């Protein structure tokens, strides 16, 4: 019995040893997976970042579009080779774009801490510029090489851009965000077209430090210091010595007929723009009033600091905006309107991200002996002559749009804009001294740098499935310039737009564009 007992115990020990060895070879059981949890604190689409109390939401869109009749994806053909209406002008411009935004929020004892980032990757058809020798140069809108190639430092010939990157905490907004001056719809009261005059529109964001006070009942007020360098400087134009042409060399026929009446002579940054805004949000819509102060800090009269300089001059802008929702014409129908006045702060009327601030367009002429017609205009912040102070340019304008929903799948919008630019007597005298000093006098020609811009457009959108929209946006832009008579372009001509020397009639100009878009939001 002892022998049997010993054998049984030995066998059991051996089996336990083998079993232990086999168990050591088995995989260790994984810890329970911490599944992503829905965060319902901040609306749909938020999830908790695993292992944290921070909620995150990802979003964006992919867009493909073609603009007919323009060299800019969103712009009217009112300057450059697009407005030359010749073999250098594009019949179409195509853009593909992917947008990605990341929104994070964390509840703290001081309130919600929020970060927001929005970036885009775009690839856009390029254009060509004449060199005056029958040779053209061109490329994508972002690389500057030939259209088939990739630009140095770019990504596959396209561009990476940052729209927004900001932190919000305890009422403060710090970073790149929409200007507090802008209406909530920025550049788009009802349109896809991106070059409407008549109000501010930092749709791609501007660096700022802002405090927003919430008084309840939908009433808020914001006070902001925002960077003026990137978008808000329309120019401080040096017209040179009165009665001469900037020493005889700087103002050229090509420059003036391109809308550059002198040299932009803005100095280094001194003060951010100061913004105050009051807004009321209610079920019926919203009302907003905003004002801005803008420091115009010019450089020197001449090449050296010993030449002297004009003193700084503060400009300002004021804007009112109104949105009315769910009007009797249909559920979800909306009217958005705004009006703006500026004095030495032109970019708050001519939106900073799209409007070049100069216009030079060509068309047909009925004047005997004229080769073509031309319309020119310019809208800087200030102009000055050597020894004189800055003369501010005054503007006012308005824009608006009405959107009607036909059914859950179709809607249409009509929109329009209008803006006026006025030069003071001294400012106009300086501009006209350069005009006649450079181009000479022609019988019947009058010089008047004042002008108006009028715009009208119509959009129809079809959304066959949720978050997928096809749209067509037709726009008309009209330059009502105040020069009259004719001008003689000298022997050098305008080689950048292939316009030969000869007589050109001053005449109002028009641009017609059609923007076709497919966009998938996610």
TrEMBL record:
Coiled-coil segments: none
InterPro entries, alphabetized: Porin_alphabac
Keyword Ion transport: yes
Compartment list: Cell outer membrane
Family matches, as Pfam families: Porin_2
Membrane topology: Multi-pass membrane protein
Signal peptide from the UniProt entry: 1-23
Keywords, alphabetical: Cell outer membrane, Ion transport, Membrane, Porin, Signal, Transmembrane, Transmembrane beta strand, Transport
Described function: Forms passive diffusion pores that allow small molecular weight hydrophilic materials across the outer membrane.
Domain notes: Consists of 16-stranded beta-barrel sheets, with large surface-exposed loops, that form a transmembrane pore at the center of each barrel. The pore is partially ocluded by a peptide loop that folds into the pore lumen.
Family, as annotated: Belongs to the alphaproteobacteria porin family.
Protein's name in the database: Porin
Organism: Bradyrhizobium canariense
């Amino acid at each position: 019995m002892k022998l049997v007992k010993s054998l049984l115990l030995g066998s059991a020990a051996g089996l336990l040893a083998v079993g232990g060895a086999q168990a050591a070879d088995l995989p260790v059981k994984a810890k329970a997976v911490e599944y992503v949890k829905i965060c319902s604190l901040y609306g749909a689409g938020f999830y908790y970042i695993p292992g944290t109390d921070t909620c995150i939401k990802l979003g964006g869109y992919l867009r493909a579009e073609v603009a007919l009749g323009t060299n800019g994806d969103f712009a009217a053909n009112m300057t450059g080779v697009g407005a030359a209406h010749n073999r250098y002008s594009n019949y179409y411009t195509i853009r593909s774009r992917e947008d990605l935004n990341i929104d994070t929020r964390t509840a703290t004892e001081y309130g919600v801490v929020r970060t927001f980032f929005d970036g885009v990757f775009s690839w856009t058809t390029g254009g060509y510029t004449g060199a005056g020798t029958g040779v053209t140069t061109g490329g994508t809108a972002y690389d500057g090489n030939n259209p088939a190639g990739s630009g140095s430092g770019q990504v596959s010939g396209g561009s990476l851009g940052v729209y927004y990157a900001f932190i919000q905490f305890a009422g403060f907004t710090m970073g790149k965000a929409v200007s507090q001056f802008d209406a909530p719809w920025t550049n788009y009261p009802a349109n896809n077209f991106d070059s409407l005059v008549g109000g501010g529109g930092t749709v791609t964001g501007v660096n700022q430090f802002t405090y927003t006070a919430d008084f309840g009942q939908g009433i808020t007020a914001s006070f902001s210091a925002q960077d003026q360098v990137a978008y808000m400087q329309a120019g401080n134009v040096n017209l040179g010595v009165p009665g001469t042409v900037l020493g005889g060399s700087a103002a050229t026929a090509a420059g003036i007929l391109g809308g550059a009446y002198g040299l932009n002579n803005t100095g280094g940054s001194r003060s951010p723009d100061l913004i105050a805004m009051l807004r009321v949000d209610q079920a019926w819509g919203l009302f907003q009033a905003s004002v801005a102060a803008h420091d115009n800090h010019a450089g020197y009269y001449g090449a050296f600091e010993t030449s002297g300089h004009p003193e700084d001059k503060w400009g300002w802008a004021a804007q009112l905006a109104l949105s009315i929702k769910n009007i009797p014409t249909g559920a979800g129908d909306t009217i958005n309107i705004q009006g703006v006045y500026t004095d030495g702060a032109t970019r708050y009327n001519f939106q900073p991200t799209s409007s070049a601030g100069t216009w030079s367009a060509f068309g047909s002429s009925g004047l005997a002996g004229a080769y073509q017609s031309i319309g020119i205009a310019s809208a800087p912040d200030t102009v000055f002559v050597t020894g004189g102070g800055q003369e501010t340019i005054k503007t006012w304008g308005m824009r608006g749009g009405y959107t009607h929903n036909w059914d859950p799948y179709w809607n249409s919008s009509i929109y329009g804009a209008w803006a006026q630019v006025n030069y003071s007597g001294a400012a106009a005298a300086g501009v006209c001294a350069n005009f006649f000093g450079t181009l000479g006098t022609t019988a019947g020609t009058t010089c008047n740098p004042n002008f108006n811009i009028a715009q009208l457009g119509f959009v129809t959108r079809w959304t066959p499935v949720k978050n997928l929209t096809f749209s067509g946006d037709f726009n008309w832009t009209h330059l009502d310039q105040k020069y009259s008579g004719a001008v003689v372009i000298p022997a050098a001509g305008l080689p950048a737009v292939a316009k030969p020397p000869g007589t050109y009639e001053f005449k109002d100009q028009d641009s017609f564009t059609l923007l076709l878009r497919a966009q998938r939001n996610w």
